[in-house]
Amino acid sequence: MKKVKVESLVLDKLNNSPVVILKVEGTKKILPIWIGACEASVIAMILENVSFERPLTHDLLLSMVEGLESKVEKVLINKIVDSTYYAKVILRDLTVTEEENEGYFLEFDARPSDAIILALKTNSPIYISNELYNTYTLQYDGESMDNDSEEFRKFIENL
Amino acid sequence: MKKVKVESLVLDKLNNSPVVILKVEGTKKILPIWIGACEASVIAMILENVSFERPLTHDLLLSMVEGLESKVEKVLINKIVDSTYYAKVILRDLTVTEEENEGYFLEFDARPSDAIILALKTNSPIYISNELYNTYTLQYDGESMDNDSEEFRKFIENL
User: Are the Cβ atoms of B54 and A159 closer than 8 angstroms?
Assistant: First the structure.
């Protein structure tokens, strides 16, 4: 498992699809993940510190997780099948105190976009599997990847 | 409290905004609620029985609620403040067996769109408060409200 952070959000001009760029900590390796427009707009709001008065869907999810005495522990983007990335959100059950207890952690199948949003909103770590690291990351030696941000903002504003 | 059901999804042509139409059971009263495009696309998928291979955000939320031994009991659209509708999602804690226990039900502040989506996905009842019923519902004696659906589909497809 390799820890990653969200480097930026860019636009794939070929199909007008948003792409979130994950950067593997301590390396120049990046992993691009194509995501939906709705999830991209949420990630853009987080990255630009834009808040919204009413709870968005992920805020509602997190208030329920908290209300049910649990918390987001970490997220893992673990595999790719038929060009689709899969992720897991791992919750810690705060009502269980023994680490040995099998109920301590709960895993949920998720899209990477949702997993990344939950990690960003809770400051939880994001990991990718070694398989993804070895096979799907790209070397990136260029300049900042933010050069598409103006274009991306326009895309989001037109939703 | 009045029980409502989702009558249809239409498009407000004035500002190109989706509107979900709730109909009060046993009456000809409707309550229109303006919602976001992303939430509208989820409601449209539910109403048209379109399924998606990967879990959408509300599916992830519901799998967490279930994993944390809870379930959606009902949703209530309870008030309007500064032209914004407010809702509550009420969860039942399945680990608590005594109805008297104060932990039996948990209430979460939500946007009506999220609340409606969760109710539709779990076949849970949707209510509106008496205040909304008395002040904000409209009498509707016309034909089916589905006549905008083709237009609405085009709007959603262009997202």
Answer: no
Q: Which residues from A are below 8 Å from B69, CB to CB?
A: 68
- pLDDT block averages, 10 residues each, chain A of length 159: 96 90 95 95 95 96 97 97 96 80 87 98 98 94 59 60
Instruction: Give the CA angle between residues B85, B91, B95 to the nearest 5°.
Output: 170
Q: In terms of CA atoms, which chain B residue is nearest residue A56?
A: B111
SS3 at position B52: coil
ipTM associated with this complex: 0.90
| Nearest CB to B55 within list A56, A68, A111 | A111
- One-letter amino acid identity for B59? D
User: Looking at residue A147, what is its pLDDT?
Assistant: 47
Write out pLDDT tens, residues A14-44. Answer: 888 999 999 999 999 999 999 999 999 999 9
Nearest to A108 among B64, B108, B110 (CB): B64
B64, B69, B106 ranked by CB distance to A61: nearest: B64
Determine, for residues A57 and B58 on separate chains, whether the beta-carbon distance falls below 8 Å: yes
What values do phi and psi take at A46, rounded to 5? -65, -50
Question: Are B104 and B87 contacting, i.e. CB atoms less than 8 angstroms apart?
Answer: no
Contact A91 B65 (CB under 8 A): no
How far apart CA B136 and CA A90 sit, in angstroms, is: 42
Inter-chain CB proximity B91 and A64 less than 8 Å? yes
Nearest to A39 by CA among A123, A108, A113, A119: A113
Going by DSSP bridges, is the β-strand pair A84-93/B17-24 parallel, antiparallel, or unpaired? Answer: unpaired
CA distance A118 to A70: 13
Dig out the tokens for B82 from the structure. 């500064």
Cα nearest neighbour of B61 on chain A: A61
Residue A113 near residue A20, CB atoms below 8 Å = yes
Nearest to B23, CA basis, from B149, B156, B142, B148:
B142
